[in-house]
Design brief:
mainly beta; 236 residues; globular; single chain; 32% strand; binds fe (iii) ion; seven-stranded antiparallel beta sheet; 3 helices
């Protein structure tokens, strides 16, 4: 028996892992950071090979981890989790500082951070396991609770993109029947937002009566920032 949903019972923490390449910064949501040994203090972190943050860490050999608070809004998680740094500058309009490694540290919604230097990289199929030495760490916003992955799933109704280390397919996505133009509702698999064509998305200049298929390719979920390919048809 291989009931992968059992893995949802593991507890993880929600973080933003950031790095640099030259004078460019990028970061993404990661829930697979854990302490490996106490002395010297070291962490391990698993990251998809295709992500831009991976490219930056492979180049600079440093990264930072901003540990997110329970109160982090979905739109903020979406910006770092479901958008690619190849399309947007994730560090625009957020508060961050440059750490002693030169890598950026996200400060918004952060209860603590870690700065680390990569000591070893291990290929694991689609991901790299980075083993890194902690060179600095600090607690911020001491009164706030960190967000666990279980809280993100169960309370915030957040989901995981396919590229994440802990992605588990829950159910097959519904396929759109060919040739049928439809005005059906679509659900964001990341946050549960429902796109209703009868309502449209007036806050983002999408008129009522716009079918999901007719939304522009760069349209994103107004709740969490996930792209159109993270939506699935809502069956009647
Ligand atoms: Fe969403």
């Amino acid at each position: 028996m291989l009931d992968l949903e059992a893995l949802f019972k593991l507890s993880y923490g929600m973080c933003i892992v950031s790095s640099k390449k030259g004078n460019r910064f990028n970061g993404c949501i990661v829930n697979t950071v854990f302490q490996l040994v106490p002395e010297p203090p070291m962490v391990a972190m698993s990251l998809n090979i295709q992500s831009l943050t991976h490219e930056y860490i492979a180049d600079s050999k440093v990264f930072t981890v901003s540990i997110l608070s329970q109160e982090t809004p979905m739109l903020f998680i979406g910006k770092f989790g479901f958008r690619s740094g190849k399309e947007i500058d994730k560090f625009e309009q957020i508060n961050f500082k440059i750490g002693q490694t030169g890598s950026p540290i996200v400060l918004d919604n952060t209860v603590g951070f870690i700065e680390a230097e990569v000591a070893q990289s291990i290929d694991v199929v689609t991901h790299t396991l980075f083993i890194a030495k902690i060179v600095a760490c600090e607690t911020l916003d001491g009164g706030k609770e960190p967000m666990t992955y279980a809280y993100y799933r169960d309370i915030k109704h957040g989901r995981t993109p396919k590229t994440a280390a802990t992605y588990i397919r829950e159910k097959p996505a519904a396929k759109l029947k060919e040739g049928i133009t439809n005005m059906k509702k679509y659900k964001c698999l990341m946050c549960g937002y429902i796109y209703d064509p009868e309502v449209g998305d007036p806050d983002n200049d999408v008129e009522a009566g716009t079918a999901f298929e007719d939304l522009p390719d760069d349209w994103v979920c107004p709740e969490c920032g996930a792209g159109k390919d993270e939506f699935e048809l809502v069956e009647d």
